[in-house]
């Protein structure tokens, strides 16, 4: 299994020692023994994580046979692509440290999950320091600045030429920026939205000051690389105040403990506990032979993390990134409207994650070019409605596409 090619990528970023790799290991580990289901690592720092969504099979009262995803007791786990990005060090945009490698991975990401050490026990370069002595808000500002300055460096080289060429046409400016920034996974709609949000004079870009350009790029960064803060190490008491402050500053913050999630998934994989990622509790298996240390560790996670915060936060962070930041919806295409199956009789085989706004016909094209070309109409199975090509898909829609061609 792999994430499909139209899918969005989430880059896990932050300075060294905040818990990025722990988060990545936890998020890419399936906590059950599931036979021939392959755990996929694409490259050393690329992996498949999972979105958690209630499976529609219970609602339609059918047994499912998932193909591109997993169903664990009524919870669908849908694969998504994660990148464990090299640690950010100050001055990355000027090529310091692993700066180039860092930016090369940020370039490919559609959204960022910024893992911060919310407990404030690592300094600005990632070296351990006294607990609570570093302000993680500095890390948040720092990362934003590095990415904006990197974009600025790319754009500034030929800004005056670009601004002159754009002349008085706003569309020209959009196209020129698009061409210049396309390698950063920045799309035309990101540029249009950033222009709408900024109060700069688009007719006269040649009059923009250096400050104006940076102001615009700051907006473009937040639009094109939407960022979630995974406030990690909530098991350490010094994290609480910091999390509140970050939330109050308007950031999307998900408190988490990557270490606890990794411990739970490993215990699940070994068959010691029942645990589906994102659960608010764990259940020790009756026949599990836990030693005292294991029992104590699991009890502590239950008490200080799951009861207190509702979950370890790792699953919630991934869900928030894809469902809220990237506004994806999960849809179930089926061929047979009665049995909710594909032509091989597999019930609810696939879940497609598509951006909100995707239409029935666009989905047909994502499934197969031929299906898009020969699209007649679609059936929204829940509503038992025939819908046209412009129907906008909703989260958890079960949809059947009727086409002029028979697929085999
Ligand atoms: N207390 C605590 N420590 C954590 C947590 N997650 C990771 N760590 C520790 O933080 C250190 C750095 O973790 P690592 O994943 O290698 O960080 P990276 O450099 O950002 O990839 C390790 O000692 C981890 O065990 C957590 O949730 N709580
Ligand atoms: Mg690491």
Report on this structure.
- With 408 residues, this protein is an alpha/beta fold.
- It has three domains: 9-143 and 227-323, P-loop containing nucleotide triphosphate hydrolases (Rossmann fold); 160-220, no CATH class; 328-403, Beta-grasp domain (Ubiquitin-like (UB roll)), CATH 3.10.20.30.
- Helices cover 37% and strands 19% of the residues.
- The protein is built from 13 helices and 15 strands.
- Strands 1, 2, 3, 4, 5, 6, 7 and 8 form an eight-stranded mixed beta sheet that branches. Strands 12-11-15-13-14 form a five-stranded mixed beta sheet. It has a two-stranded antiparallel ribbon with strand order 9-10.
- The chain starts with 8 loop residues before the first strand and ends in a 5-residue tail after the last strand.
- The relative contact order is 0.13.
- The structure holds guanosine-5'-diphosphate and magnesium ion (MG).
- Guanosine-5'-diphosphate binds at residues 14, 16-22, 87, 232-233, 235-236, 257-259.
């Amino acid at each position: 299994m792999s994430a499909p090619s139209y899918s969005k990528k989430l880059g896990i970023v932050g300075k060294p020692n905040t818990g990025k790799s722990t988060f990545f290991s936890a998020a890419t580990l399936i906590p059950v023994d599931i036979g021939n289901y392959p755990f996929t690592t694409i490259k050393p720092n690329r992996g498949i994580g999972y979105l958690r969504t209630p499976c529609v099979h219970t609602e339609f009262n059918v047994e499912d046979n998932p193909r591109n995803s997993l169903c664990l007791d009524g919870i669908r786990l849908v694969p998504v692509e994660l990148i464990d990005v090299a640690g950010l060090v100050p001055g990355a945009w000027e090529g310091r440290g692993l700066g180039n490698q860092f930016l090369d991975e940020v370039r490919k990401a559609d959204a960022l999950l910024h893992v911060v050490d919310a407990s404030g026990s690592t300094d600005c370069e990632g070296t351990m320091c006294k607990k609570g002595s570093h302000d993680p808000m500095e890390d948040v500002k720092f990362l934003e600045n590095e990415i904006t300055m990197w974009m600025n460096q790319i754009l500034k080289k030929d800004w005056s030429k670009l601004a002159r060429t754009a002349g008085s046409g706003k569309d020209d400016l959009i196209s020129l920026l698009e061409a210049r920034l396309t390698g950063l996974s920045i799309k035309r709609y990101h540029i249009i939205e950033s222009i709408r949000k900024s109060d700069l004079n688009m007719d006269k870009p040649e009059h923009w000051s250096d400050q104006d350009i940076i102001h615009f790029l700051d907006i473009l960064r937040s639009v094109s690389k939407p960022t979630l803060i995974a406030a990690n190490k909530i098991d350490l008491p010094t994290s609480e105040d910091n999390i509140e402050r970050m939330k109050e500053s308007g950031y999307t913050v998900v408190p988490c403990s990557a270490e606890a999630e990794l411990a739970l998934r490993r215990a699940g994989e070994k068959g010691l506990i029942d645990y589906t990622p994102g659960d608010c509790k764990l259940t020790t298996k009756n026949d599990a032979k836990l030693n005292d240390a294991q029992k104590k560790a699991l009890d502590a996670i239950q008490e200080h993390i799951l009861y207190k915060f509702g979950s370890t936060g790792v699953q919630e962070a991934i869900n928030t990134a894809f469902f809220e930041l990237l506004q994806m919806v999960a849809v179930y295409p089926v061929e047979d409207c009665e049995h909710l199956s594909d032509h091989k009789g597999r019930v609810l085989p696939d879940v497609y994650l598509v951006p909100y706004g995707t239409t029935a016909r666009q989905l047909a094209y994502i499934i197969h070019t031929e299906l898009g070309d020969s699209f007649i109409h679609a059936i929204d199975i829940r509503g038992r409605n025939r819908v046209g090509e412009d129907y906008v898909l909703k989260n958890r829609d079960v949809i059947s596409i009727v086409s002029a061609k028979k697929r085999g």
